[in-house]
Design goal:
The structure is a homodimer. Chain A is an alpha/beta fold. Helix content of chain A is about 40%, strand content about 20%. In chain A, strands 1, 2, 5, 6, 7, 8, 9, 10 and 11 form a nine-stranded mixed β-sheet that branches. A two-stranded antiparallel sheet of chain A has the order 3-4. In chain A, helix 6 packs parallel to helix 7. The longest helix of chain A is centred in the N-terminal third of the chain and has 20 residues. The first copy, chain A, is globular and about 60 Å long. Chains A and B meet through helix 4, helix 6 and helix 8 of A and helix 4, helix 6 and helix 8 of B.
Chain lengths: ~280, ~280
């Protein structure tokens, strides 16, 4: 049996490599701590790049708390099969998404899986989903430095870079530093740190309260010698939009967070083009 | 070799069982989503129970983002050895804590471990730490329904109950529901749901903004038929205190969050005493 198993393994690796070779940039979005807005960043980054005319795929490897479907307003949709594998869910003509929630019958049912099963699910997402030709594959990982980001980074032949999300508070920064060292150990370039939930402007009196403090992300980036991509201010409207499945960078939403985010996208594309990967549809 | 291995395994199980038999109540604190304040709840729950005169242990099984040391103001302390195993770090005379951060030399270094290694670390925390006689062992788990909470629930002979933390926003509730079903599948009683970060009162104008909305946790508890333990209002001071390593239930801090939290502790003790486990030092 052994030679057959090896042959199968080789075929599998070839299929995975072929799929990934058709994707120009693979960006993993990470955070040390949960709840810092990692999924919000992944969703809005994918959406913003799609609005800029890029071909984008978004894969949700947070198997225990898959929230991209809800945040993109495509809850309840399911994968379909085709001759070319599993078809991802289309959010926009040039934005495709894959999440375990597109395969689960009951959204309340937890995925009580240990590492090896999770690795095989992530492999399926990368290998069997018909991603086609993409400028970007955005990988939304669960918080921490465990099985899921490790599996993704080891399965994808060449990860273009990691975007690390943090809030300005100390406990979050502490964990974000770990993510930077995680990327370094796996030889993945750190594109930069995004400071999320930065400051809060009271809608009643207009005065700012630094709920989760402010500036910590920028300071950490400087200390660690990695780029600071920008800060996204904290507005309660963002929570409401996320719950309603509307990315805050959607057309017509021209608030401060959306503008801050577009600037962050510009910096990410700049980082990647300097590294020579560029984007085929670049209009800048 | 096999008979020896089996003998060793049996001895191991006996040691674990002995340690755990000396702990009256084991409470696992869970959340579906990260960043909802699970560690803050674990830390303040442990501290509040200790202030109420109980013998308390707090074990941090979030190996990738261990934050209890920072939040308890015992950062930089290390485990010590003794004849009875590994000595936990003492926070108060009647509050002991164990976290991977007490064993790690460099706080920036990420723990890049897969499931099996994590299970063995968690087993060590339960089996080799000299917990002694305790009224409560509070288990702070990482978000989700993966390896860590699964390992803890399978290793501990009898978990008294699960406390589930959520913010009021929809995406958090979605994941909290998963935690309730996780507990049910593992036959662990659900002590109840805590709604954290509920509302925000502007320190400038005194008006409330429901940043992460309000009431979602209570609604979810009602829907799922589990107790609602209470809501903790969102005050920026809480973030500041956490970063400074001061539990907000500390003596002298008599704000609304502290009072809300004491009421939550009372409900938890009530739930456990109705289940017949009670507490030896109960003064009520």
């Amino acid at each position: 049996m052994k030679p057959i198993q090896i042959a199968e393994k080789k075929d599998e690796d070839k299929v995975l490599k072929d799929r990934m070779s058709r994707i120009k940039n693979k960006i993993i979005v990470m955070s040390g701590k949960g709840g810092v807005g990692k999924t919000s960043v992944s969703v809005n980054l994918s959406y913003a790049l799609a609005l800029m005319g890029r071909e984008v795929g978004l894969v949700d490897i947070d198997l225990h708390g898959p929230n991209i479907a809800k945040m993109l307003g495509v809850e309840g949709q399911n994968f379909t099969g085709s001759d070319n594998g599993i078809e991802p869910v289309r959010v926009l003509p040039n934005l495709k998404a894959a999440s375990i929630s597109f395969a689960a019958a009951n959204p309340d049912m937890p995925i009580i899986w240990r590492g090896p099963l999770k690795m095989s699910a992530i492999r399926q997402f990368l290998e069997e989903i018909n991603w086609g030709e993409l400028d970007y594959l955005i990988i939304d990982s669960p918080p921490g430095t465990g099985d899921e980001p490790l599996s993704a980074c080891q399965l994808i032949p060449e990860v273009s870079g990691a975007v690390i999300v943090t809030t300005p508070q100390d406990v979050s920064i502490l964990d974000a530093r770990k993510s930077v060292f995680f990327a370094r150990q796996l030889k993945i370039p750190v594109i930069g740190i995004i400071e999320n939930m930065s400051g809060f402007v009271c809608p009643h009196c207009g005065k700012e309260t630094p709920i989760f403090k402010k500036g910590g992300g920028e300071k950490a980036a400087k200390n660690l010698g990695v780029p600071f991509l920008g800060r996204i201010p904290f507005e309660p409207e963002l929570v409401e939009l996320a719950d309603r499945g509307i990315p805050f960078v959607s057309e017509g939403l021209d608030g401060i967070p959306a503008r801050a985010f577009m600037e962050i996208c510009r910096r990410i594309e700049e980082f990647l083009s300097e590294k020579g990967t560029g984007t085929p549809h670049s209009r800048s």
